Automatic annotation (TrEMBL):
Name listed for the protein in its UniProt record: Glutamate 5-kinase
Function noted in UniProt: Catalyzes the transfer of a phosphate group to glutamate to form L-glutamate 5-phosphate.
Annotated residues for binding of ATP: 12, 171-172, 213-219
EC number(s) from the headed UniProt entry: 2.7.2.11
Ranges for domain PUA: 281-357
PANTHER family: GLUTAMATE 5-KINASE, ISOPENTENYL PHOSPHATE KINASE
InterPro entries, per database record: AceGlu_kinase-like_sf, Asp/Glu/Uridylate_kinase, G5K_ProB, Glu/AcGlu_kinase, Glu_5kinase, Glu_5kinase/COase_Synthase, Glutamate_5-kinase_CS, PUA
Family matches, as Pfam families: AA_kinase, PUA
Amino acid sequence: MSPDNKKRVVIKIGSSSLTSSHGEISRRKLERLVDQVVDLKDSGHEVLLVSSGAVAAGYRKLGCLERPSSLPEKQAAASIGQGLLMEAYSELFLSHGYVASQILITRDDFSDENRYNNARNTINVLLERGIVPIVNENDTVTINRLKFGDNDTLSAKVAGLVDSDLLIILSDIDGLYSADPRQDPNAKLVPHVGEITQEIEESAGDSGSSVGTGGMRSKIDAFKIAMASGIPAFLGRAGVPNILTQAVDGDATGTYFESEDDSANLNQKKQWIAFNSGPEGEIVVEDAAKRAIIEDKEPLLREHVKYIKGHFSERAVVRILDKDENELALGVTNYSSDELALNEPIDQPIVDSEGLVCHLEIPVPVGL
């Protein structure tokens, strides 16, 4: 394989695609997944896995007869299951001559720009050395308000983090349908999506699995992030033979998501601002600023500002609102709230153009 054909691929596998009918990790399903990843590795591709399954792997050993519903029991099950899951992955990859590594992250790791860049550098080293990083949210310590939401969202953010060439989400469905195929016998598989419209969002149903946490809605949000980041994506059924190789080659049965507007792709800095940062405060702007920062792509200047809300530090991300407090943009401010409150002359824009992400460029709610 020539270097031009080598791809960096992020693959998300859901709990329902790794578990048996009893809710426990299926060794056979795990082996099939690893065999397909090995085929990609042998073909010269770099592969990163975002794998669910920690709670499913651990809850029975915790003494639960079914998947727990309380947060402490889920976290306890994850603390058992994550080790068991990684042990199985490591053993299977080593049997093929490949090393797997474990990366457990929280949303805090992505919201802090230094930690975000450190994670990016670490994963890049692993991929360049031929290692298979296996990423999961650190469910044992993460609380609900600081969660990514689910591993669909996490996989899209990881794909942006590592500048992936393709995001593959494997699930228990064949792809995106025109309607819920379990309820509408006339539902048709949609092979390609160039833009996620309101109609597509309204047609998105939930997963039929009681094992996983993400339904079709979460997958649509994940594909919005990927498409805004300029990363093609694919949704297909995990149990299909050779689905990964087919997806990479572009001829798999499923749904491919790829933005039709390459000019709107967010760079790495703007991806972090849009999808990972935690805004610290708010700046309410005059009506004239709407056109300046949204249409004309100009920096945010002091004369645009009506007032500020909250306290924020220099280089913090802030929400930029109109007078009715509708969100217009996110931006990295050059000044703290205390400095701006002094109303003294300043020699820089409050937010530079390159540190500004307008709402129209952000296809999902802030912080998703």
